[in-house]
Amino acid sequence: MTSPQPVVNPLRDPRDKRLPRIAGPSSVVIFGVTGDLSRKKLMPAIYDLANRGLLPAGFSLIGFARRDWDDEDFMAVVHDAVKQYARTPFSEEVWRHLAEGIRFVQGTFDDDVAFDTLAQTLRDLDHVRGTGGNHAFYLSIPPGAFPTVLQQLKRSGLCEQQAGEWRRVVIEKPFGHDLESAQALNALVGDVFPSSSVFRIDHYLGKETVQNLLALRFANQLFEPIWNSHYVDHVQITQAEDIGVGGRAGYYDGIGAARDVIQNHLLQLMALTAMEEPVSFEPRELRREKAKVLSAVQVPDDILSGTARGQYSTGWQGGVKVQGYLEEDGIPPSSTTETYAAVKLLIDTRRWAGVPFYLRTGKRLGKRVTEIAVVFKRAPHLPFSHTDTEELGSNALVIRVQPDEGITIRFGSKVPGPSMEVRDVNMDFSYGQSFTEASPEAYERLILDVLLGEPSLFPQDEEVELSWKILDPIEKVWAKTKAQPEAYLSGTWGPASADAMMARDGRTWRRP
Ligand code: BG6
What we know:
- Substrate binds at residues 203, 207, 241, 260, 363.
- By secondary structure, this protein is an alpha/beta fold.
- The chain has helices at residues 36-51, 71-85, 92-99, 112-129, 146-155, 179-192, 208-218, 249-252, 256-274, 283-295, 431-434, 442-452, 461-481, 496-504, and strands at 27-31, 60-65, 102-106, 135-139, 167-171, 198-200, 232-240, 297-298, 307-313, 315-317, 320-322, 340-347, 357-362, 369-376, 396-402, 406-414, 422-430, 486-489.
- 34% of the residues lie in helices and 20% in strands.
- Helix 1 links the parallel strand 1 (27-31) and strand 2 (60-65).
- Helix 6 packs antiparallel against helix 13 (461-481), helix 9 crosses helix 13 and helix 10 (283-295) packs parallel to helix 13.
- It is globular and about 80 Å long.
- 6-O-phosphono-beta-D-glucopyranose (BG6) binds next to helix 9.
Protein backbone atom coordinates (compact mmCIF):
# COMPACT_ATOMS: atom_id res chain seq x y z
CA MET A 1 0.00 0.00 0.00
CA THR A 2 1.42 3.40 -0.97
CA SER A 3 0.75 6.00 1.68
CA PRO A 4 -0.97 9.09 0.28
CA GLN A 5 0.55 12.51 0.88
CA PRO A 6 -1.08 14.63 3.57
CA VAL A 7 -3.16 17.41 2.11
CA VAL A 8 -1.58 20.79 2.77
CA ASN A 9 -3.75 23.56 4.03
CA PRO A 10 -2.61 26.90 2.70
CA LEU A 11 -5.64 28.68 4.16
CA ARG A 12 -5.16 27.78 7.79
CA ASP A 13 -4.14 30.65 10.04
CA PRO A 14 -1.67 29.35 12.69
CA ARG A 15 -3.23 31.74 15.27
CA ASP A 16 -6.61 30.06 14.87
CA LYS A 17 -7.42 28.46 18.25
CA ARG A 18 -10.37 26.44 17.02
CA LEU A 19 -9.74 22.75 16.69
CA PRO A 20 -10.05 21.69 13.08
CA ARG A 21 -12.69 19.03 12.57
CA ILE A 22 -10.85 16.83 10.11
CA ALA A 23 -12.65 13.84 8.65
CA GLY A 24 -11.10 10.42 9.20
CA PRO A 25 -10.24 7.99 6.38
CA SER A 26 -13.18 7.93 3.99
CA SER A 27 -14.57 8.22 0.50
CA VAL A 28 -17.70 9.68 -1.08
CA VAL A 29 -19.56 8.01 -3.93
CA ILE A 30 -21.84 10.37 -5.85
CA PHE A 31 -24.77 8.97 -7.80
CA GLY A 32 -25.95 11.59 -10.26
CA VAL A 33 -22.59 13.20 -11.04
CA THR A 34 -23.85 14.60 -14.31
CA GLY A 35 -26.49 16.72 -12.56
CA ASP A 36 -26.38 20.42 -11.75
CA LEU A 37 -26.21 19.98 -8.00
CA SER A 38 -23.20 17.79 -8.27
CA ARG A 39 -21.32 20.17 -10.57
CA LYS A 40 -22.28 23.43 -8.89
CA LYS A 41 -22.32 22.42 -5.24
CA LEU A 42 -21.00 18.96 -4.33
CA MET A 43 -17.74 18.79 -6.29
CA PRO A 44 -16.77 22.39 -5.43
CA ALA A 45 -17.61 21.78 -1.74
CA ILE A 46 -15.40 18.69 -1.67
CA TYR A 47 -12.55 20.68 -3.20
CA ASP A 48 -13.10 23.53 -0.70
CA LEU A 49 -12.93 21.05 2.17
CA ALA A 50 -9.68 19.67 0.75
CA ASN A 51 -8.37 23.20 0.37
CA ARG A 52 -9.18 23.96 4.00
CA GLY A 53 -7.30 20.82 5.05
CA LEU A 54 -10.41 19.12 6.40
CA LEU A 55 -10.28 15.94 4.31
CA PRO A 56 -8.11 12.96 5.19
CA ALA A 57 -4.96 12.29 3.21
CA GLY A 58 -6.32 9.40 1.15
CA PHE A 59 -9.80 10.84 0.59
CA SER A 60 -11.40 9.47 -2.57
CA LEU A 61 -14.27 10.66 -4.72
CA ILE A 62 -16.06 8.18 -6.92
CA GLY A 63 -18.55 9.18 -9.58
CA PHE A 64 -21.20 6.73 -10.77
CA ALA A 65 -23.17 7.51 -13.94
CA ARG A 66 -24.33 6.17 -17.28
CA ARG A 67 -21.94 8.32 -19.34
CA ASP A 68 -19.22 6.58 -21.24
CA TRP A 69 -16.43 8.18 -19.21
CA ASP A 70 -13.20 6.86 -17.73
CA ASP A 71 -11.41 8.18 -14.63
CA GLU A 72 -9.66 10.92 -16.64
CA ASP A 73 -12.91 12.16 -18.21
CA PHE A 74 -14.54 12.38 -14.80
CA MET A 75 -11.47 14.07 -13.36
CA ALA A 76 -11.76 16.72 -16.10
CA VAL A 77 -15.42 17.26 -15.20
CA VAL A 78 -14.58 17.70 -11.51
CA HIS A 79 -11.69 19.99 -12.42
CA ASP A 80 -13.94 22.26 -14.49
CA ALA A 81 -16.62 22.32 -11.79
CA VAL A 82 -14.05 23.22 -9.14
CA LYS A 83 -12.48 25.94 -11.28
CA GLN A 84 -15.86 27.45 -12.01
CA TYR A 85 -17.71 27.12 -8.72
CA ALA A 86 -15.33 26.53 -5.79
CA ARG A 87 -15.43 29.16 -3.07
CA THR A 88 -11.74 29.05 -2.19
CA PRO A 89 -8.84 29.85 -4.53
CA PHE A 90 -7.60 27.16 -6.85
CA SER A 91 -4.37 25.49 -5.74
CA GLU A 92 -2.61 23.10 -8.11
CA GLU A 93 -1.15 21.23 -5.17
CA VAL A 94 -4.47 20.64 -3.42
CA TRP A 95 -6.05 19.65 -6.74
CA ARG A 96 -3.25 17.17 -7.53
CA HIS A 97 -3.74 15.39 -4.18
CA LEU A 98 -7.49 15.32 -4.58
CA ALA A 99 -7.31 14.11 -8.18
CA GLU A 100 -5.23 11.09 -7.15
CA GLY A 101 -8.33 9.73 -5.40
CA ILE A 102 -10.85 10.38 -8.17
CA ARG A 103 -12.44 7.34 -9.87
CA PHE A 104 -15.38 6.78 -12.19
CA VAL A 105 -17.66 3.75 -12.44
CA GLN A 106 -19.82 3.55 -15.53
CA GLY A 107 -23.26 1.97 -15.38
CA THR A 108 -26.99 2.33 -15.02
CA PHE A 109 -28.74 2.02 -11.67
CA ASP A 110 -30.21 -1.38 -12.54
CA ASP A 111 -26.87 -2.82 -13.66
CA ASP A 112 -25.69 -5.45 -11.14
CA VAL A 113 -22.26 -5.69 -12.75
CA ALA A 114 -21.70 -1.94 -12.41
CA PHE A 115 -22.48 -2.09 -8.69
CA ASP A 116 -20.16 -5.06 -8.29
CA THR A 117 -17.49 -3.00 -10.06
CA LEU A 118 -18.22 -0.15 -7.65
CA ALA A 119 -17.79 -2.51 -4.69
CA GLN A 120 -14.48 -3.71 -6.11
CA THR A 121 -13.34 -0.11 -6.76
CA LEU A 122 -14.06 0.78 -3.12
CA ARG A 123 -12.17 -2.28 -1.87
CA ASP A 124 -9.21 -1.27 -4.04
CA LEU A 125 -9.33 2.28 -2.68
CA ASP A 126 -9.44 0.95 0.89
CA HIS A 127 -6.24 -0.88 0.07
CA VAL A 128 -4.45 1.71 -2.07
CA ARG A 129 -5.56 4.94 -0.40
CA GLY A 130 -6.45 3.76 3.06
CA THR A 131 -10.12 4.80 2.98
CA GLY A 132 -10.71 2.25 5.74
CA GLY A 133 -14.02 0.78 4.54
CA ASN A 134 -15.71 4.10 5.35
CA HIS A 135 -17.95 5.09 2.48
CA ALA A 136 -20.70 7.68 2.07
CA PHE A 137 -23.17 7.14 -0.78
CA TYR A 138 -24.58 10.44 -1.94
CA LEU A 139 -27.88 10.05 -3.81
CA SER A 140 -28.08 13.20 -5.92
CA ILE A 141 -30.64 11.53 -8.18
CA PRO A 142 -34.34 11.85 -9.02
CA PRO A 143 -36.51 10.32 -6.30
CA GLY A 144 -37.84 7.75 -8.76
CA ALA A 145 -34.37 6.19 -8.81
CA PHE A 146 -34.00 5.89 -5.00
CA PRO A 147 -35.54 2.40 -4.70
CA THR A 148 -33.31 0.90 -7.41
CA VAL A 149 -30.10 2.40 -6.05
CA LEU A 150 -30.94 1.47 -2.46
CA GLN A 151 -31.70 -2.10 -3.51
CA GLN A 152 -28.42 -2.26 -5.40
CA LEU A 153 -26.49 -1.02 -2.37
CA LYS A 154 -28.14 -3.81 -0.42
CA ARG A 155 -27.70 -6.54 -3.03
CA SER A 156 -24.03 -5.76 -3.60
CA GLY A 157 -23.35 -5.66 0.14
CA LEU A 158 -22.15 -2.05 -0.14
CA CYS A 159 -24.38 -0.98 2.74
CA GLU A 160 -22.83 -3.49 5.13
CA GLN A 161 -20.14 -2.23 7.42
CA GLN A 162 -17.63 -4.51 9.13
CA ALA A 163 -16.38 -3.79 12.65
CA GLY A 164 -14.52 -0.46 12.75
CA GLU A 165 -15.98 0.71 9.43
CA TRP A 166 -18.95 2.89 8.54
CA ARG A 167 -21.34 3.11 5.58
CA ARG A 168 -23.64 6.12 5.28
CA VAL A 169 -26.25 7.23 2.82
CA VAL A 170 -26.92 10.86 1.98
CA ILE A 171 -30.32 11.66 0.53
CA GLU A 172 -31.11 14.84 -1.33
CA LYS A 173 -34.58 16.30 -1.38
CA PRO A 174 -37.31 15.96 -2.43
CA PHE A 175 -37.90 13.47 0.33
CA GLY A 176 -41.23 12.24 -0.98
CA HIS A 177 -44.02 14.37 -2.43
CA ASP A 178 -46.53 13.86 0.39
CA LEU A 179 -46.76 12.12 3.75
CA GLU A 180 -47.52 8.71 2.30
CA SER A 181 -44.62 8.69 -0.16
CA ALA A 182 -42.25 10.05 2.52
CA GLN A 183 -43.25 7.24 4.87
CA ALA A 184 -42.74 4.70 2.09
CA LEU A 185 -39.31 6.17 1.37
CA ASN A 186 -38.36 6.17 5.04
CA ALA A 187 -39.33 2.50 5.23
CA LEU A 188 -37.32 1.72 2.12
CA VAL A 189 -34.19 3.48 3.37
CA GLY A 190 -34.69 1.95 6.82
CA ASP A 191 -34.65 -1.50 5.25
CA VAL A 192 -31.16 -0.90 3.87
CA PHE A 193 -29.45 1.42 6.37
CA PRO A 194 -29.90 1.86 10.13
CA SER A 195 -31.32 5.31 10.98
CA SER A 196 -27.96 6.44 12.41
CA SER A 197 -26.46 5.98 8.92
CA VAL A 198 -29.07 8.05 7.07
CA PHE A 199 -28.28 11.71 6.39
CA ARG A 200 -31.13 13.67 4.79
CA ILE A 201 -29.91 16.93 3.35
CA ASP A 202 -31.70 20.20 3.94
CA HIS A 203 -28.96 22.54 2.84
CA TYR A 204 -30.50 25.51 4.65
CA LEU A 205 -29.42 23.91 7.92
CA GLY A 206 -25.82 24.06 6.72
CA LYS A 207 -25.92 27.83 6.29
CA GLU A 208 -23.95 29.77 8.91
CA THR A 209 -26.71 32.31 9.42
CA VAL A 210 -29.20 29.57 10.14
CA GLN A 211 -26.92 28.05 12.77
CA ASN A 212 -26.42 31.54 14.16
CA LEU A 213 -30.10 31.64 14.94
CA LEU A 214 -29.36 29.19 17.76
CA ALA A 215 -26.49 31.34 19.01
CA LEU A 216 -28.62 34.47 18.83
CA ARG A 217 -31.44 32.91 20.80
CA PHE A 218 -29.62 30.73 23.30
CA ALA A 219 -26.25 32.40 23.89
CA ASN A 220 -27.76 35.78 24.75
CA GLN A 221 -29.91 37.10 27.54
CA LEU A 222 -31.25 39.95 25.45
CA PHE A 223 -33.70 38.30 23.08
CA GLU A 224 -35.24 35.27 24.74
CA PRO A 225 -37.42 37.15 27.27
CA ILE A 226 -39.30 38.87 24.43
CA TRP A 227 -39.39 35.85 22.11
CA ASN A 228 -43.04 34.96 22.70
CA SER A 229 -46.63 35.96 22.15
CA HIS A 230 -46.49 38.70 24.80
CA TYR A 231 -44.16 40.75 22.62
CA VAL A 232 -44.15 39.24 19.14
CA ASP A 233 -46.95 40.25 16.79
CA HIS A 234 -46.05 37.88 13.96
CA VAL A 235 -43.12 36.33 12.14
CA GLN A 236 -42.43 36.52 8.40
CA ILE A 237 -40.10 33.99 6.81
CA THR A 238 -39.21 34.82 3.23
CA GLN A 239 -37.19 32.91 0.66
CA ALA A 240 -37.24 34.93 -2.55
CA GLU A 241 -35.31 34.25 -5.70
CA ASP A 242 -34.83 36.43 -8.75
CA ILE A 243 -34.10 33.47 -11.04
CA GLY A 244 -36.72 31.40 -12.84
CA VAL A 245 -36.97 27.66 -13.11
CA GLY A 246 -33.99 27.57 -15.47
CA GLY A 247 -33.00 24.10 -16.65
CA ARG A 248 -34.90 22.35 -13.85
CA ALA A 249 -38.30 22.08 -15.53
CA GLY A 250 -38.29 18.27 -15.31
CA TYR A 251 -37.88 18.35 -11.54
CA TYR A 252 -39.90 21.46 -10.74
CA ASP A 253 -43.06 21.17 -12.79
CA GLY A 254 -45.69 19.28 -10.84
CA ILE A 255 -43.73 19.86 -7.61
CA GLY A 256 -44.08 23.61 -7.19
CA ALA A 257 -42.85 26.17 -4.70
CA ALA A 258 -44.55 24.80 -1.58
CA ARG A 259 -43.18 21.28 -1.91
CA ASP A 260 -39.81 22.54 -3.16
CA VAL A 261 -39.08 25.07 -0.43
CA ILE A 262 -41.79 25.42 2.24
CA GLN A 263 -41.99 21.73 3.16
CA ASN A 264 -38.29 21.63 3.96
CA HIS A 265 -36.27 24.85 4.17
CA LEU A 266 -38.97 27.19 5.48
CA LEU A 267 -40.49 24.78 7.98
CA GLN A 268 -37.00 24.08 9.30
CA LEU A 269 -36.35 27.82 9.67
CA MET A 270 -39.68 28.15 11.43
CA ALA A 271 -38.89 25.27 13.78
CA LEU A 272 -35.53 26.80 14.74
CA THR A 273 -37.14 30.21 15.27
CA ALA A 274 -39.96 28.85 17.42
CA MET A 275 -38.47 25.94 19.34
CA GLU A 276 -37.75 25.85 23.06
CA GLU A 277 -34.17 25.77 24.28
CA PRO A 278 -32.88 22.20 23.96
CA VAL A 279 -31.34 20.76 27.13
CA SER A 280 -28.13 20.36 25.15
CA PHE A 281 -26.99 20.54 21.57
CA GLU A 282 -26.91 16.77 21.33
CA PRO A 283 -28.53 15.87 17.99
CA ARG A 284 -31.35 14.01 19.72
CA GLU A 285 -32.27 16.98 21.89
CA LEU A 286 -32.19 19.47 19.03
CA ARG A 287 -34.37 17.26 16.85
CA ARG A 288 -36.76 16.63 19.70
CA GLU A 289 -37.39 20.37 20.13
CA LYS A 290 -37.84 20.95 16.40
CA ALA A 291 -40.26 18.04 16.17
CA LYS A 292 -42.29 19.48 19.07
CA VAL A 293 -42.80 22.71 17.14
CA LEU A 294 -43.72 20.92 13.92
CA SER A 295 -46.23 18.74 15.70
CA ALA A 296 -47.92 21.84 17.22
CA VAL A 297 -48.39 23.61 13.87
CA GLN A 298 -51.97 24.36 12.79
CA VAL A 299 -52.90 25.22 9.23
CA PRO A 300 -55.62 27.87 8.82
CA ASP A 301 -59.22 26.63 9.08
CA ASP A 302 -59.97 28.30 5.79
CA ILE A 303 -56.99 27.18 3.78
CA LEU A 304 -57.81 29.20 0.69
CA SER A 305 -57.90 32.49 2.55
CA GLY A 306 -54.80 31.68 4.62
CA THR A 307 -52.60 30.76 1.64
CA ALA A 308 -51.70 32.16 -1.79
CA ARG A 309 -50.33 30.65 -4.99
CA GLY A 310 -48.82 32.39 -7.95
CA GLN A 311 -47.03 31.72 -11.22
CA TYR A 312 -44.60 34.17 -12.80
CA SER A 313 -45.45 35.70 -16.14
CA THR A 314 -43.28 37.66 -18.53
CA GLY A 315 -41.62 40.68 -17.00
CA TRP A 316 -38.41 42.59 -16.47
CA GLN A 317 -35.58 41.58 -14.24
CA GLY A 318 -32.41 43.61 -13.91
CA GLY A 319 -33.32 45.52 -17.08
CA VAL A 320 -33.71 42.30 -19.05
CA LYS A 321 -36.99 40.98 -20.40
CA VAL A 322 -37.63 37.47 -19.09
CA GLN A 323 -40.18 34.90 -20.15
CA GLY A 324 -43.04 33.61 -18.07
CA TYR A 325 -43.13 30.17 -16.47
CA LEU A 326 -45.44 28.76 -19.14
CA GLU A 327 -42.99 29.79 -21.88
CA GLU A 328 -39.97 28.19 -20.19
CA ASP A 329 -38.33 25.19 -21.87
CA GLY A 330 -39.93 21.91 -20.88
CA ILE A 331 -42.98 23.45 -19.14
CA PRO A 332 -46.36 22.39 -20.55
CA PRO A 333 -48.33 25.51 -21.58
CA SER A 334 -51.23 24.37 -19.39
CA SER A 335 -49.12 23.81 -16.25
CA THR A 336 -50.82 24.72 -12.96
CA THR A 337 -47.59 24.43 -10.94
CA GLU A 338 -47.09 27.36 -8.57
CA THR A 339 -43.79 29.25 -8.58
CA TYR A 340 -44.88 31.32 -5.57
CA ALA A 341 -46.48 30.09 -2.39
CA ALA A 342 -47.41 31.80 0.85
CA VAL A 343 -48.96 30.16 3.90
CA LYS A 344 -50.07 31.34 7.30
CA LEU A 345 -49.38 28.91 10.12
CA LEU A 346 -50.08 28.98 13.84
CA ILE A 347 -48.19 27.14 16.55
CA ASP A 348 -50.41 25.84 19.30
CA THR A 349 -48.12 26.29 22.28
CA ARG A 350 -48.18 28.62 25.26
CA ARG A 351 -45.24 30.56 23.82
CA TRP A 352 -46.76 31.16 20.39
CA ALA A 353 -50.53 31.07 20.87
CA GLY A 354 -52.12 33.57 18.47
CA VAL A 355 -48.86 34.57 16.73
CA PRO A 356 -49.07 33.88 12.99
CA PHE A 357 -46.00 32.68 11.15
CA TYR A 358 -46.23 33.77 7.51
CA LEU A 359 -44.02 31.74 5.16
CA ARG A 360 -43.51 32.71 1.54
CA THR A 361 -41.25 31.61 -1.27
CA GLY A 362 -41.11 32.39 -4.94
CA LYS A 363 -39.10 32.49 -8.12
CA ARG A 364 -38.62 35.56 -10.31
CA LEU A 365 -39.37 37.92 -7.43
CA GLY A 366 -37.93 41.40 -6.88
CA LYS A 367 -34.58 40.14 -5.61
CA ARG A 368 -32.78 37.17 -4.09
CA VAL A 369 -33.19 37.32 -0.36
CA THR A 370 -33.89 34.94 2.50
CA GLU A 371 -34.79 36.40 5.88
CA ILE A 372 -36.63 35.70 9.10
CA ALA A 373 -38.36 38.80 10.41
CA VAL A 374 -39.68 38.74 13.97
CA VAL A 375 -42.10 41.67 14.09
CA PHE A 376 -42.97 42.99 17.55
CA LYS A 377 -46.18 44.46 18.90
CA ARG A 378 -46.47 48.22 19.07
CA ALA A 379 -45.61 49.83 22.40
CA PRO A 380 -48.82 49.80 24.49
CA HIS A 381 -48.69 53.55 24.94
CA LEU A 382 -46.91 56.31 23.00
CA PRO A 383 -46.61 59.52 24.99
CA PHE A 384 -46.11 61.55 21.82
CA SER A 385 -48.53 63.40 19.67
CA HIS A 386 -49.86 61.32 16.76
CA THR A 387 -48.08 63.31 14.06
CA ASP A 388 -44.73 62.80 15.85
CA THR A 389 -44.94 59.03 15.37
CA GLU A 390 -46.42 58.86 11.89
CA GLU A 391 -43.19 57.35 10.54
CA LEU A 392 -42.83 54.83 13.33
CA GLY A 393 -43.50 51.22 12.37
CA SER A 394 -43.25 48.10 14.50
CA ASN A 395 -39.97 47.05 16.03
CA ALA A 396 -38.47 44.12 14.15
CA LEU A 397 -35.54 41.79 14.44
CA VAL A 398 -34.54 40.52 11.04
CA ILE A 399 -32.17 37.61 10.57
CA ARG A 400 -30.70 38.13 7.12
CA VAL A 401 -29.98 34.56 6.04
CA GLN A 402 -28.66 35.58 2.61
CA PRO A 403 -27.19 37.45 0.85
CA ASP A 404 -25.58 40.19 2.97
CA GLU A 405 -25.69 37.84 5.96
CA GLY A 406 -26.36 39.45 9.31
CA ILE A 407 -29.00 40.78 11.66
CA THR A 408 -30.95 44.02 11.59
CA ILE A 409 -32.90 45.48 14.49
CA ARG A 410 -35.46 48.10 13.58
CA PHE A 411 -36.61 50.50 16.26
CA GLY A 412 -37.83 54.07 16.67
CA SER A 413 -35.42 56.94 17.17
CA LYS A 414 -35.78 60.66 17.64
CA VAL A 415 -35.19 62.64 14.48
CA PRO A 416 -32.60 65.33 15.25
CA GLY A 417 -34.23 68.72 15.69
CA PRO A 418 -36.34 70.74 18.05
CA SER A 419 -39.45 68.54 17.99
CA MET A 420 -39.92 65.02 19.40
CA GLU A 421 -40.44 63.33 16.05
CA VAL A 422 -39.82 59.57 16.13
CA ARG A 423 -38.97 57.51 13.07
CA ASP A 424 -37.74 53.96 12.31
CA VAL A 425 -33.99 53.38 12.14
CA ASN A 426 -31.94 50.23 11.64
CA MET A 427 -29.09 48.83 13.67
CA ASP A 428 -27.03 46.32 11.73
CA PHE A 429 -24.74 43.42 12.42
CA SER A 430 -23.04 42.18 9.31
CA TYR A 431 -20.92 39.05 9.07
CA GLY A 432 -18.70 40.68 6.47
CA GLN A 433 -17.78 43.52 8.84
CA SER A 434 -17.52 41.60 12.09
CA PHE A 435 -15.55 38.59 10.88
CA THR A 436 -12.69 38.46 8.46
CA GLU A 437 -13.31 34.84 7.52
CA ALA A 438 -15.86 34.14 4.79
CA SER A 439 -18.63 31.71 5.72
CA PRO A 440 -18.24 28.21 4.31
CA GLU A 441 -20.85 27.05 1.83
CA ALA A 442 -23.67 25.01 3.36
CA TYR A 443 -22.57 21.92 1.43
CA GLU A 444 -19.03 22.11 2.82
CA ARG A 445 -20.38 21.95 6.34
CA LEU A 446 -22.87 19.22 5.58
CA ILE A 447 -20.53 16.93 3.64
CA LEU A 448 -17.95 17.29 6.41
CA ASP A 449 -20.60 16.40 9.00
CA VAL A 450 -21.52 13.29 7.03
CA LEU A 451 -17.89 12.18 7.03
CA LEU A 452 -17.62 12.93 10.75
CA GLY A 453 -20.89 11.12 11.48
CA GLU A 454 -22.35 14.27 13.08
CA PRO A 455 -26.12 14.19 12.49
CA SER A 456 -27.34 17.42 14.18
CA LEU A 457 -27.96 19.35 10.98
CA PHE A 458 -29.85 16.58 9.18
CA PRO A 459 -33.62 16.27 9.61
CA GLN A 460 -34.65 12.81 10.69
CA ASP A 461 -37.62 10.82 9.47
CA GLU A 462 -40.02 12.17 12.10
CA GLU A 463 -39.37 15.82 11.15
CA VAL A 464 -39.80 15.07 7.47
CA GLU A 465 -43.09 13.30 8.07
CA LEU A 466 -44.37 16.05 10.38
CA SER A 467 -43.57 18.63 7.71
CA TRP A 468 -45.60 16.72 5.14
CA LYS A 469 -48.47 16.49 7.62
CA ILE A 470 -48.52 20.29 7.63
CA LEU A 471 -48.35 20.67 3.86
CA ASP A 472 -50.59 17.79 2.75
CA PRO A 473 -53.95 19.40 3.67
CA ILE A 474 -52.90 22.62 1.93
CA GLU A 475 -51.84 20.79 -1.23
CA LYS A 476 -55.09 18.81 -1.18
CA VAL A 477 -57.23 21.94 -1.07
CA TRP A 478 -55.16 23.56 -3.82
CA ALA A 479 -55.45 20.43 -5.97
CA LYS A 480 -59.21 20.28 -5.45
CA THR A 481 -59.76 23.80 -6.75
CA LYS A 482 -57.80 22.89 -9.92
CA ALA A 483 -57.28 26.64 -10.20
CA GLN A 484 -54.54 28.18 -12.28
CA PRO A 485 -52.18 29.97 -9.86
CA GLU A 486 -52.56 33.73 -10.06
CA ALA A 487 -50.11 35.29 -12.49
CA TYR A 488 -47.56 37.80 -11.20
CA LEU A 489 -45.17 39.83 -13.27
CA SER A 490 -41.56 38.65 -13.11
CA GLY A 491 -39.50 41.04 -11.03
CA THR A 492 -42.39 41.95 -8.71
CA TRP A 493 -43.20 40.60 -5.22
CA GLY A 494 -45.74 37.94 -6.10
CA PRO A 495 -49.48 37.72 -6.70
CA ALA A 496 -52.03 40.24 -5.40
CA SER A 497 -53.75 37.41 -3.49
CA ALA A 498 -50.66 37.17 -1.23
CA ASP A 499 -51.04 40.84 -0.30
CA ALA A 500 -54.76 40.32 0.20
CA MET A 501 -54.04 37.39 2.51
CA MET A 502 -51.96 39.68 4.74
CA ALA A 503 -54.40 42.57 4.45
CA ARG A 504 -57.17 40.36 5.86
CA ASP A 505 -55.03 40.15 9.03
CA GLY A 506 -54.32 43.89 8.97
CA ARG A 507 -50.67 43.31 8.07
CA THR A 508 -48.37 43.78 5.09
CA TRP A 509 -45.45 41.81 3.71
CA ARG A 510 -42.04 43.28 4.20
CA ARG A 511 -40.27 44.54 1.07
CA PRO A 512 -36.75 43.31 1.84
C1 BG6 B 1 -33.41 24.23 -3.42
C2 BG6 B 1 -34.63 24.34 -4.29
O1 BG6 B 1 -33.61 23.31 -2.38
O2 BG6 B 1 -33.10 25.50 -2.87
C3 BG6 B 1 -34.40 25.37 -5.37
O3 BG6 B 1 -34.89 23.08 -4.88
C4 BG6 B 1 -33.96 26.68 -4.78
O4 BG6 B 1 -35.57 25.54 -6.16
C5 BG6 B 1 -32.79 26.47 -3.83
O5 BG6 B 1 -33.56 27.51 -5.86
C6 BG6 B 1 -32.43 27.74 -3.11
O6 BG6 B 1 -31.23 27.55 -2.41
P1 BG6 B 1 -30.32 28.79 -2.01
O7 BG6 B 1 -29.28 28.20 -1.11
O8 BG6 B 1 -29.77 29.35 -3.29
O9 BG6 B 1 -31.21 29.76 -1.33
